[in-house]
Design goal:
Layout lengths: L7 H18 L3 H12 L3 H29 L10 H16 L5 H15 L4 H16 L11
Helix pairs in contact: 1-2, 1-3, 1-4, 2-3, 3-4, 4-5, 4-6, 5-6
Length: 149
């Protein structure tokens, strides 16, 4: 293949694009993933990582991810969130819970940067707040202190 190693942030970005198509456009999972990968020109390992992140996020969305998001998104339901925000949260939480080899600070930082790039001006803070609270619950001895600003 003529793709090059993309890096984990690019993998996350392509996975987000597929999740967006599935959520907003109602596309079948495999169709959305293959459509995204047809323009991504990724190496096979990166393409497989996109497939795994998307299928994992979709598989655990209703049983694990959405209930956790709603637990920490005070005053927000999944349906009221911006499409990009809820799918970024699903993607990041799936990765935090099922890929502990990925440093949580990098996962959160990438989610914040993608929120700033693709969503609203407030989305970076919104995503950071929810992911930060979840990480504090997951790693109480290691998580950073709450933001005070």
């Amino acid at each position: 293949m003529n793709g090059k190693p993309a890096g984990r942030r690019a993998v996350r970005e392509w996975a987000l694009r597929a999740l967006y198509q599935i959520d907003l456009g109602g596309k079948p999972v495999e169709e959305a993933v293959e459509e995204v990968l047809s323009v991504a020109a990724l190496e096979p390992d990166d393409a497989n990582a996109v497939r795994e992140l998307v299928s994992g996020a979709i598989r655990t969305q209703h049983t694990e991810l959405d209930p956790l998001i709603e637990q920490f998104a005070r005053g927000w339901t999944i349906d009221r969130m911006a499409v990009i925000d809820r799918n970024l949260l699903r993607l990041a939480i799936y990765e935090l819970r099922h890929h502990p080899e990925q440093p949580y600070k990098v996962v959160i930082n990438d989610a914040i940067e993608l929120a700033k790039k693709y969503s609203t001006a407030e989305s970076g803070r919104f995503v950071n707040g929810i992911l930060g609270a979840i990480v504090r619950q997951m790693y109480p001895d290691d998580a950073p202190p709450r933001d005070t600003d």
